[in-house]
Amino acid sequence: MKADSVLSPRLAFGHLPLFPDDEDYPPNAIYFSLLPDEGGLGRVTFEDLDAVRGSRGEHLPYPRNVPLTAPVATREWVFEVTDSPWLAERDAYENHHYRTPLLDTHQHYLFSFHDQFVEAIARGIWFDKPDPDKPLVPSPAHPLAPFSQADPAETYRSPSGVPWELRRSSKDEATLIRDSRLCSQRLYQFNLVLDGESREAASVWLRTSRGRTYSRMTRNWVGELTRRDGLAEYDDFLDEWERYTAEVADRRRSIGKPLE
Question: Strand pairing partners for 80?
């Protein structure tokens, strides 16, 4: 996906919905015109965005590590900034105030447009084409989007008595690993089935970054619980999941709620 080398981008930041069809949380994103032979809009969305900034200029603001030795067939416009002072600055801030390190998880990305740059500190990035009629609506096919309730689910009951569902990615292994070089890919989604509703409670993600592929389990509002090297199986995380379902069961029993 190549950005047009003449037209400027539009940076959308923040979650204030401006139109009814924005839904509650329009994505932080860069919108850009595609090359004329493809036409339409492209979009870059961010995984775990920490900071973003834009500036004018037609020359790269950082030196290239490796000089070009041959003509480039198409214009390069997406870069990763290594040894980034800005990433180090953001890491120091996050560590000091929130104990949230960034150096091992986030990258400094640079997007070059005509006389303009956009930079971002994020865990990952993803490219797609937004719906022309609803460009601020997140795509349901985005790798960070939850699996649909219509997707096939395996049903289980934990030893503590809590019913739950498991959904798996439909992508093949090669595609998952390839796509994980840009953005985390949801491998498995664990849903609790309580009070007649099935809701996501934890997920396992695949990410390839700095030459390393790993799988990590996260829980809503908690973050990363544990990780494994390579492309893991769902049962590699069952111990962690069962510990959580046991906590849920104990809490519900203590307040007199059924385990259904």
Answer: 109
Query: Does the predicted model carry a pTM greater than 0.85?
Result: yes
Whether 101 and 88 have beta carbons less than 8 Å apart is answered as no
CA dist list (Å): 106 to 4, 65, 207: 27, 19, 12
Spatial CA neighbour of 111 closest among 135, 76, 143, 82: 76
- Looking at the chain, which runs of residues are DSSP E strands? 10-12, 29-33, 41-47, 51-56, 78-81, 107-113, 116-122, 124-128, 154-157, 163-168, 185-194, 197-209, 212-219, 223-229
**pLDDT single digits (tens) 86-97:** 999 999 999 999
What one-character DSSP code corresponds to residue 183? S
SS3 86: helix
* Cα 257 from Cα 259, distance rounded (Å): 7
Pair 90, 102: CB distance under 8 Å: yes
Q: Which amino acid is at 130?
A: P
